[in-house]
Structure formats: C-alpha cells, structure tokens
Amino acid sequence: MRKQEVSALLIGRFQPFHIGHLEVIKTISRQCDRLIVGIGSAQLSHTFENPFTAGERHLMINRALHDEGLDNYFLVPMVDINRYAVWVAHVQSLVPPFQDVYTNNPLTRRLFEEAGYNVRSAPLFNREVYSGSEIRKRIISGKEWEHLVPKGVAETIIEVGGDQRLRDLTREHSYEVTI
Ligand code: ATP
Ligand code: MG
Question: If you write DSSP's letter for every residue of 16-60 in order, what string do you get?
C-alpha cells in the first residue's frame, strides 16, 4: 500500500505569478508531499485586474516552478461560480484529494474550515512590491517590473505580448485603472 501522502492547496489569480507566490510555494512544498495550485478566476482575461488567460498563467507558473526544480505539483484552472456555499465542493470536484489549505483570506479560511480541512496561514514575502497590482501598475507606467517575477514569467508575458496588452487595455478602458 502507498504511504499516506499529504497534499496541500493554494489558490490565487496569479495576474501575474510573482516572486512572492514562488517563495510561498517553495515554503509550502517543504511541508507537504504534493502541492495543488488553483488558478482562480480562470474564466477572466483581458481586463486590468485580470489581464492574462488561464492558459497563459498556466504556462508562466509551470515555467517558474520547473526552473526552481519543483515537480511535485498540479496546476488546476478554476472558474468562479459566485456561490460561496458550494465553493469547496466545486474545488473538490476539480482537484486530487487534499488535506491542507493555505490562505490568508478570511472567507476562504471559513469555507474550508467548515468543510473540515486544516487551514494554515501562508507567509507573505515583501508584499509592498511582490504584489500583482503593483506589477500591473509598473507595466502600465513603463517602470521596471521584470525583477519582481521569475524569469520564466517575464519571458511568458513578453512572448504573449502581455505588457503591450496591459498598456492597450488601459488606453482603451482608462476608467478601469487607478494608478
Ligand atoms: P493582486 O494584487 O492582483 O490581488 P496578489 O499579489 O494579491 O495579486 P493573488 O493572485 O491575489 O496575488 O494572490 C494569491 C495568493 O498569493 C494569496 O493567497 C496571497 O496571500 C498570496 N500572495 C500574494 N502576494 C504574496 C507575497 N508577496 N508573498 C506571499 N504570498 C503572497
Ligand atoms: Mg490578491
């Protein structure tokens, strides 16, 4: 029989995946046998808050984790269902079995605790700059941003024209942006 393995779940929008996300994943993956990374709001793309598609985010995260030598993870896109009462069941239907959940979000904590999971806090790394909003603002205003994301993420964003897309989205929908 296989030994009992511990799987942990972390969900984010990863718009884009940055070094804070990478650091927290490195920490969590030392505390479990397998990490499940949920790519949240998978249906959204091409907006200021959510510029990248689920497929683009999948590629950037995969490259970043592979470059770190990590291989004990699953990446699972998750569309929003906008019904908190059945969110945990929705997640369960998408991913392999898991025991631990890492989150700093009080509602996510409550929902998974009510469903009987071990919920742990995820440590924050240099949150002032390792933040999706900060990186999107920097891309739009032409400031340095590449050093805030893993190399594979910067390459993916440039490859898919994501930096130009964000700047165009801002021009086309300037009401969406608060810099
Ligand atoms: P946004 O500004 O777009 O909300 P974000 O940086 O908060 O982006 P998310 O995708 O919303 O990134 O976050 C997903 C998860 O990653 C959250 O649980 C959050 O706590 C965690 N996280 C975000 N930034 C960091 C960081 N600097 N260090 C560690 N964990 C982080
Ligand atoms: Mg966030």
Answer: T--HHHHHHHHHHHTSSSEEEEEE-STT--SSSSS-S-HHHHHHH
Q: 52 in ligand 1 pocket by Cβ < 6 Å?
A: no
Question: What span, in angstroms and rounded, lies between the C-alpha atoms of 134 and 92?
Answer: 31
Structural domain of 29: 7-173
- The CATH number of the domain holding residue 127 is 3.40.50.620
State the pLDDT at residue 173: 64
In a domain, 2, yes or no: no
Which ligand 1 atom sits nearest the alpha carbon of residue 136? 3
- Does residue 49 sit within a domain? yes
Give the pLDDT of residue 179. Answer: 46
Instruction: Decide if 67 is inside a domain.
Output: yes
Ligand 1 center to residue 30 CA distance, Å? Answer: 19
Pocket of ligand 1 contains residue 20 by CB under 6 Å: yes
pLDDT at 178 over 90: no
130 lines ligand 1 (CB under 6 A): yes
Number of domains in the chain: 1
What pLDDT does residue 1 have? Answer: 65
Answer with the residue of higher pLDDT: 1 or 138.
138
Measure 2 CA to ligand 1 centroid, in angstroms. Answer: 34
Q: Is there a domain that residue 53 lies in?
A: yes
- pLDDT, mean of residues 43-69: 97
Is ligand 1 within 6 A of the CB of residue 37?
A: no
14 contacts 56 by C-beta, under 8 angstroms: no
